[in-house]
Specification:
The protein is mainly alpha-helical. It has 4 helices and no strands. The chain is elongated, with a radius of gyration of 15 Å.
C-alpha cells in the first residue's frame, strides 16, 4: 500500500512540474500541449477541487497578443497553479490519514 502511495505522489509531483514549466514559458510560447493537458487531467481526476484546473485550462486557451494580456494570463495561471498545489496536497494528506 505504501509503495502505491509513493508512486502516486511521484506521478503527482511530475505533473506539477509540467504545469510549473507551462507557467514559466507561457509568456513567450503556446503551452496548449498534450503534456500540459494530460497533467491537468491526471491531477484533476484525483482531487475534489475542480476550479483551479478549469481556470488554468481557460487561461491557456485565452488568445493574447499584447504584453498586458500575456501578464494577465500569467497571473491567472499562477493563481490557478497555487490552487492546484493546495488541492493535490489536501488529497495526498487525506489519503495518508485515511485508515487502512
Amino acid at each position: 500500500m505504501e509503495q502505491i502511495s509513493l508512486k502516486r505522489a511521484k506521478f503527482c509531483t511530475d505533473a506539477l512540474v509540467v504545469l510549473q514549466d507551462a507557467l514559466d514559458r507561457c509568456r513567450d510560447e503556446d503551452m496548449r500541449t498534450p503534456e500540459v493537458f494530460a497533467a491537468l487531467d491526471f491531477l484533476g481526476a484525483r482531487t475534489k477541487q475542480k476550479w483551479p484546473f478549469q481556470y488554468f485550462r481557460e487561461a491557456l486557451e485565452r488568445s493574447v497578443t499584447k504584453g498586458w494580456e500575456r501578464e494577465g494570463r500569467w497571473q491567472t495561471l499562477n493563481a490557478s497553479l497555487n490552487g492546484i498545489r493546495l488541492a493535490v496536497q489536501e488529497q495526498i494528506v487525506g489519503e495518508r490519514d485515511r485508515p487502512a
